[in-house]
Amino acid sequence: MRIAAVDLISSTCFPALAAQELGFYKAEGLDVQIELFPQLRGAAALKEGKVDAMMAGSVYDLLTPFPQWAGVKLLVALSHGTPWLLVVRSDLPAKRGDLGVLKGLRIAAAHGPDLAFKRMLTDAGVDMEREGIRMVDPAGSEGSRVSFGIFAAQALKAGEIDGFWANAMGAETAVRAGAGKILLDVRRGDGPPEARHYTFAALATTDEFLTRDPVAAAAAVRAIVKTQKALRADPALALKVGERRFPPEAAPLIAAIVEQDLPFYQPAVLEEDVGRLNGFAQSMGILSRPVPYEQVVAVRFRGLWAS
Known about the structure:
This protein is α/β, with parallel strands linked by helices. It is built from 13 helices and ten strands. It has two domains: 2-81 and 199-304, D-Maltodextrin-Binding Protein, domain 2, CATH 3.40.190.10; 85-195, D-Maltodextrin-Binding Protein, domain 2 (3-Layer(aba) Sandwich), CATH 3.40.190.
């Protein structure tokens, strides 16, 4: 089973990577290969049949190659809540939650997550143009093997940007280096309340694959559920995965980050999750109308989420 990923150096989709490294896919009879793709190309690879499934860190990315959720289904949630944090330069005189400090700043965000950042500012009553907030792309950030969060932390330290919107690994890297401080962690209640539920991470596959190999799809769901359960029982398992798959400087951080994220590692994709997701997608113009829950989620596997 081939699974696409756009970023492995992150806690967001970590259960899908851990399922491979800790042997949970193998225990379910699956031979899984996780393949890296540039940002937004993972969803395209799924559409084009280059992979069988995708680790989607922002599930609304699927709507570009699969308009109106046609032909794709979410199998199981990897982690809940909008996974990105807003980090700014550590020397800025800003208290946590103070969006006024963004005036005139250069903020980096990957393509895809940038939609959530822009919507968050709108919901917070911040006009980007009036405040002179500029979105920038640090040179080299689109590389297929670049972890955007870590790359952005390095760019912040180098003075190339004033802040970034990225995953917890990027935020932790910047904070520990003394280059940045967390301004917002929307998943934990900072910023406008609706920002907490713009999106979530999930494992997705195509309707074609569900027809062709439903046994493999079910096995993948079981593997993710068991991995999440194992991580909740022993967060130190994350370090073993990090030492095998992460760069040396990132590996020691992942266990602490995963332990903080344990409450979000729940497999169920609820109707309210899909409703909020679709509402966000409509607000950003990437979904034209609401789509029923059953057309977004592979509901036949709901019974496996509690196993």
